[in-house]
Amino acid sequence: MPNWNALLSQSNHRRHHPARGHLARYRNSAYHLSRVSASGKDKHEVKECGQDARAPIIAIVGPTASGKSALGIKLAVRLGGEIINCDSVQVYQGIQIATAKVPIEERQGIPHHLIDFVSPHINFTAADWARAAIEKIAEIEARDRRVLLVGGTGLYLRALRRPFFPSPPTDERLRARLTKIRERHGPERLHRILQRFDPTEADNLNPRDWPRVQRAIEFCLQTGEHISRERPLRPEPPAAAARIRIFALNPPRAELYRRINERTEKHFANGLVAEVRRLLDDGVPAESNALGAHGYRRVVEHLRGQRDLCSAIEQTKLDVRHYAKRQLTWFRREPDVEWVEGFGYDDRVQHEVFARLRD
Questions:
Q1: Does residue 54 sit in helix, strand or coil?
Q2: How many CB atoms lie within 10 A of CB 201?
């Protein structure tokens, strides 16, 4: 195990360290090979089952509380489809109240996949989701059913359309160390660290874009390689990726924020604090992906005595509103996104999407 503290204090970004060469192991791992084979499997199964290779895979995306599930279910009923969840919190078991998972009785008989199937103790990644989604797409189309991807996690959809290059699993101790640096000294400190290890990548990143900065540092320290040099190793997208047609909801901002505030209060009233307490008591780490989600992390702070309940509620509202804004920004930067003005539960919006699909 490399000494992260020592490495983080080094000033020479060219220095070799014990992690050097680790990338080769990951590059040839089953992780990478599964992505290549999944692409070929997808192309083969679509051809064999008689599914029209030109039939679009419909993705319904947009900000939280915009009615994506309502639109997705309506489309699935009309088109004879099944839904693959594309939300990074809804994958987790036991994480219920603040996730907006559609109750089974409200799904109108539409099968939902990749939902409630991962232990909250596991840090499920976008690459994990993409591999699982490729398999589910093949299964659904083998039944001559239409595929709908529904959810607001843009990174999941990107991982499916443009697979990531191979990288090592998260080192939780290293991540905790970098998180502590960021919390104590700000994201700019992480950016200066990245300048030492990978100046090319640092020059391409905003100093306040700490998730990407931190990931680049982790990659360098775990593999001994520069992330800026490894991107050409990105695998080819699966065949199904070319058929994804993305519809993004863009509801009125004021009404969206009102709904977010109202829904947040409802979550707390429905027992969100008790749910988080139970998860912590069951040993789910407070720093896990599941409890680090925008609807949960302020509750963790409340239970740790770091803020009172009123503060937790109001900060959660703000967090979710900011998250919705980031989601809209993310999808505006993605290629080939078709925007639909309004909420997904609105009849006008549903008719508009149906009409576009018929064209």
A1: coil
A2: 23
CA distance linking residue 288 with residue 296, whole number of Å: 11
What's the confidence (pLDDT) of residue 97? Answer: 95
Q: Is 289 helix (H, G, I), strand (E, B) or coil?
A: coil
Please report, in angstroms and rounded to a whole number, the separation of the first and last CA atoms in the chain: 57
The residue ranges of DSSP E strands in the chain, in sequence order, are 57-61, 81-85, 112-113, 146-150, 244-250, 337-341
pLDDT at 54: 61
Say what the pLDDT of residue 235 is.
Answer: 83
Q: Which portions of the chain are predicted below pLDDT 50?
A: 1, 11-52
What's residue 205's pLDDT?
A: 92
Q: How far is CA 217 from the centre of its chain?
A: 20
HSE-up of 207 (CA within 13 Å, CB side)? Answer: 10
Of the candidates 244, 241, 242, 239, the residue with the CA atom closest to the CA atom of residue 37: 239
Per-residue pLDDT tens for 124-158? 989 999 999 999 999 999 999 999 999 999 999 99
For residue 358, count CB atoms less than 10 angstroms from its CB and return exposed for 0-12, middle for 13-18, buried for 19 or more.
exposed
Q: Which domains does the chain have, with CATH numbers?
A: 4-17+172-233 (1.10.20.140), 30-165+244-251+341-358 (3.40.50.300), 253-326 (1.10.287.890)
Q: What pTM was computed for the model?
A: 0.78
Beta bridge partners, 92, equal 118
> Exposed/middle/buried for 338, CB within 10 Å: 0-12, 13-18, 19+?
exposed
pLDDT at 273: 98
